[in-house]
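Fold it.
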Amino acid sequence: MFHVSSGREGPILAHGRPGTHVAYQVPMAREIRHALNMPVIAVGRLDEPTLANAVVGNEEAGLAAVGRGMLRNPYWALEAAAELGKEIQYPGVYGLGFGIK
């Protein structure tokens, strides 16, 4: 499995940094996946659960990395699963933090 990232490479904008948009690196991951016939991990602002789920569900990548989303919210995976209507098994007393007794 390959973790595909361009390191935020792109045209330099007025503020001196490359421009990024939601899922901006997914096309590159998809191309590498198809060219090598190997699973890849896509990156690039995949913080929305429905988007990350679609990238995997549409077979653009085998996994979606949610780096900044997880840094911002360490419970991202649990909240994403709930948003997507998945059954969640909270570890230990975590359920108390989510209103589950």
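The longest strand covers residues 40-42.
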